[in-house]
Amino acid sequence: MSLGRTTQIDDSMQSLMRRRIVIAEKDPRSRERLRHALHEIGLDIAGLAMDGQEAIQMANGLDPDFVLLDENLTVVSAYDAAAAIQATAPDVAPIIISEQTGPDVMRRAMLYGARDVIRKPLDTNELRNTLLRLDEIHRTQMTPDFGALLDPARLPSVFCVTGGKGGVGKTMIATNLALALRERNPKTILVDLYTQFGDIAAVLNLEPKRTLAELAGLTDEIDWSLLSNYVHKHQSGLHALFTSNRPLILDALPVVVLDKVVALLKREYKYIVFDVPPYLHATTLHAMSVSSAVMLICNLFDYTTIADTKALFETLDGAYVSRDRLKLVVNRVTAQNRFQVDDLERSFGHPIFMQLPNEPRVVSMVNTGYSGHGAVANLPLGEAVRTLVDKLTELPAQSATTPLLAQPQAKQGLITRWKSVFGGASA
């Protein structure tokens, strides 16, 4: 047992012997003592700085692994030097030498970007152990597994599709979006968050046997081995989860359960799409608050939809979802729309993220049940959904092969003039 530990220490010391350090100390005799001590333990002395300014310059110009900063440095203080090094050379580890190493000193040092504080007079063993510990952290950060954690391509994305009222095409957009995302990555799942009258099952022609509402009260028992039994598979390969298969109370899916479900899904899937009902509730607000983007679906021919969407936007903005994550999507755009996109943007004070065309030619596909082999990929709606995916994922466009669902045509209501509808709402 001790032999293994000795081997581990020896391996670490060999790694440390290849590291470079800058010593920043205003007193020349102390600087020389530090140089000698650090050289004796195998470090390469990259540079000797007389003040904090020199320490910053050497940290950026001499490619050291560590910078030792005496707390009494002049020109630039040790703490300000640590902050500057952290900002300009983040791979360099600043270490402060101080006569005090209590909680307040440690807290201040951490706030300024130092990796550790070592007490004066300097103890060689303590310094060596500190450098070994920091070197171990550095070597861990260089491993492929650690790099994979920071790879943006591997980070899961959660997209919510919702709106201020029903009947605006949220479910069709959520389903089309999920299918298009699955073309990018098969690890995609669509979640119907409705506790009452959700339509994802009907659109996908699926019959949910198990629902998330059944997990209420089982928070501590939920793991992937359990949750995977609730995942349904569509013919296209898309995975789906359903909150309910019959009308339930709004609290049927508690926030604590949803939070556990989202955490598990993010470990298993690249893309998670929520079809969120058009009401404000603890569950829907939680889903939107943990999302990468929240798409608010609106149209240009129904004043009540515009008014309700604007009220939802103003409620969510900043309080639950940051403005940059709120995406206004105008659905069923036609040449006959009574309102214009510019009018909508002025009223909301927020840009339109995407416009989706009305596509009456494919209504029958939804009415007959979607089998996963639809032929709308080359229609304007299919192209628009792929563009939406491009914008959400910032990936280059792919060929038109996504089997997208139909989008039913909405009935237009009686609309008065823009001025009488909005009055002084737009600034």
Put the structure in a nutshell.
The protein has 17 helices and 13 strands. The protein has 427 residues and is α/β, with parallel strands linked by helices.
Report on the structure:
The chain is an alpha/beta fold and about 425 residues long. It has helices at about 1-15, 30-40, 50-60, 80-90, 105-110, 125-140, 145-150, 170-185, 200-205, 225, 255-270, 280-290, 305-315, 340-350, 365, 380-395, 420, and strands at about 20-25, 45-50, 65-70, 95-100, 115-120, 155-165, 190, 230-235, 240, 270-275, 295-300, 325-335, 350-355. An eight-stranded mixed β-sheet has the order 8-9-7-10-6-11-12-13, with helices on both faces. Strand 11 (about 295-300), helix 13 and strand 12 (about 325-335) form a beta-alpha-beta unit. Helix 8 (about 170-185) packs across helix 16. The longest helix has 18 residues, at about 125-140.
Overall average pLDDT: 83
Structural class category: alpha/beta
Beginning-to-end CA distance, first to last residue: 74 Å
CATH C-level class of the largest domain = Alpha Beta
CATH superfamily of the largest domain: P-loop containing nucleotide triphosphate hydrolases
* Biggest sheet strand line-up: 8-9-7-10-6-11-12-13
Shape: elongated
Largest sheet: 8 strands, mixed
Q: Kindly report the CATH topology of the largest domain.
A: Rossmann fold
Give, in order, the helices and strands.
HEHEHEHEHEHHEHEHHEEHEHEHEHEHHH
| Domain module tally | 2
Proportion of residues in helical segments: 40-55%
| Number of H- or I-type helical stretches | 17
Which spans of ≥5 residues are poorly predicted at pLDDT below 50?
Answer: 1-9, 371-375, 395-421, 423-427
Write down how many β-strands occur, each being a DSSP E stretch of 2 or more residues. Answer: 13
Tell me the CATH architecture of the largest domain: 3-Layer(aba) Sandwich
- Beta-strand fraction estimate: 15-25%
